[in-house]
Amino acid sequence: MRTEKVLRKSKVIPFLTSLQIDRQANFNSLIAKAKLLKLDGFERIQWDKEVWEITGGRLLQQSGRNSLSVTMNFSYPPKLDGERIGGDWEQLVKALFLLRLHSKHQNLSNQRGFVAVAAYIAYFINQRNSSIYNITREDLDRACDEISKDYSESSAYNFHKLAAEFAGHLDANGLCKNFLNYKYSKQKRPESANAVGTKRLDDPDTLITKEKVLAPVVFQVLGQLYQNVPKDHKYRFYILLLTFFACTGRRFSELSLLPYQEIQADKDGVAYLEYFPRKSSKGNTFTPIRKLYLPSQTLDILKDVISEIHDLTGKCRDSALEMHRSQTVDLRFLINCPKKLYKEDLIKLGINPNILNSDSRLSKDGLIFSDHDKLTIVGKKPSRPICYTTYEGLKKYCEYNFNPRNLSSFHIDQFGKKYFLHDLMFLRYYTMSSGKSEAYWLPVECTHSMLTTFLRYIGPVDIFCSKK
Asked: What pTM, to 2 d.p., does this model score?
């Protein structure tokens, strides 16, 4: 007769099905994998924060900008109240953001769009008190419908594609019980996105093109500016840049990153400049250098413009060479500077003396000191100690806006030659205080934002030409 105890199966109902357990394990694994990534520029982020500040890598490579950092906000779009996403949804969005950046290196606008789309989906899932596990195609449709209402046709089209990508990530990683295989049923390529190549060759509309030639009055205004703005005017550089655009007809990114050169001629005597095509993003690979043939009618103007640009950018180019050699900002102006730098010393150096104020960034970094023995100009003891900084403090100040990316090559041609900042034709000193002063120790590329700022404040041509 058996005397051992019989083990009975527990008669309890599990709170999670085996499928749910698998999906939760997949979710946890996805988050853990994302946290293991060590991406360039993500050293300062804290996973649990709503806002991430990114200081390097692909997301800072924005055309026409010299950004030192960018932010990613994990919150609902303003039209959905702008609150923080929170919970498992925020964890998922952060993980997918990192993993897709690691695998495909999308740009900043694409990543922000992906986060916005995920936030729309999360918003409607949360409205019916459901979870990632229970997401359905109807939820995705509701989010896409709302996106269509809130955004323009072209933006909504891009977001609809991102919604399909988001659903694809859920399917591929086994995060929900339903296989979505999603594409928005109302997704339609907008007419504004159609090119000639997307139409039938026998379509009569292929013969219709939009007028892209500038109006004659625009050339008249440019001519007035070029002829009447004095050569020592602080905005003369931008007049030359606009004149260059008008004479060559190329896009901004190609001309702003044009190599430093003179006009050349081919074997047939046709004048040309060398340039790098910039329409398609080729990543950090070589870009074949090509010839940009110049209209003969504008050749004399271009020769004068290029000669003047070389003169205007001479000092800036010399600083860029020094920056490339020293791998930091051009600090040669600090040679033989005194150990203690007071306001009057900073004024002589052309630096804003307000950096010695108690609320300045330099003060917050602990690099402003008080001199209790220093007397005023008239030889009296001041009521408050006079402040000063040191060589190290001023060096730190000069490096505040320094972007290490400017030390890397901007181009690599088909022959393996690298083109650095000092190899570019159009250079500027970094501007501070809303463009009122130049950081003559920090040369940078000419950006689109510089040109748009200039155009915003240009005002009437006759008044502008009379100003210095």
From this structure: 0.68
